[in-house]
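User: structure tokens for this one?
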Amino acid sequence: MKLKYLVFIVAVLGLVGTSCSKYQKLLKSQDYELWYTEAMNYYEKEDYTRAATLMGQLVNIYRGTDKAEEVNYTYANCLYGLNDYLTAGHYYREYVKNFPAGDYAEECQYMSAYCYYMRSPKPRLDQTTTEDAIQEFQLFINMYPNSARVEESTRLMDELRDKLVFKSYLNAKLYYNLGDYMGNNYQSAVIAAQNSLKDFPDTKYREELSFLILESKYIQAVNSVEEKKEDRVRDTLDEYYSFVNEFPEGKYRKKADRIFADTDKMLKGYNTEVAVN
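Assistant:
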């Protein structure tokens, strides 16, 4: 049994060695037609490393020839298969630029956007690539409004927009957490959250952003100097009514009601002082 296993291992190693030797000879041959044929074979077998090595050389060699389109497309797909989304995206865009009426133009335009999507980072990081992805998907939809990929592109754009909103929510929350450190960060939290709602009114984080505004205004009112306190209390109450009108059964309703009770009590205190005076 052990002997059979050993023979099997030796046979496999022999095949691997032969394959490597054949590949090395191929690289040294400078036979570009053979390179192309073997590269396509490697590509079909999903051996993207070897296929990409060959196709990367052939992109320049076959530039301007009848094989240029197929080489560019295949090379981009190899890079995508290797998870090199940055370079793959570049070559998908190169294909669209050089072959706007090519057989794969629609697919490459979509894949350019999808590569940006795959590179989109976590919400806490810089979202420039996310914004690029949204622009690329929108460009694809504008160019191919009847494409079967439009629905998926729209769904991915919504996902990316939610990431941008969540990023802005985290920024607003950061201001909120900073509190009074080196200034009135609650007001900055209000402005950041309001801008998010203005830019993305249909976001799934709308309730979180709206409550953050209410809570920040409430804290400002409580900690305010006397000459500004009454106006800020009234502003908080107005914000409360807007919040419960939009989210009457929301997950923050109890917290919002406690804010209302406290601010209403403060406002009644002001009204009592006015009546006495």
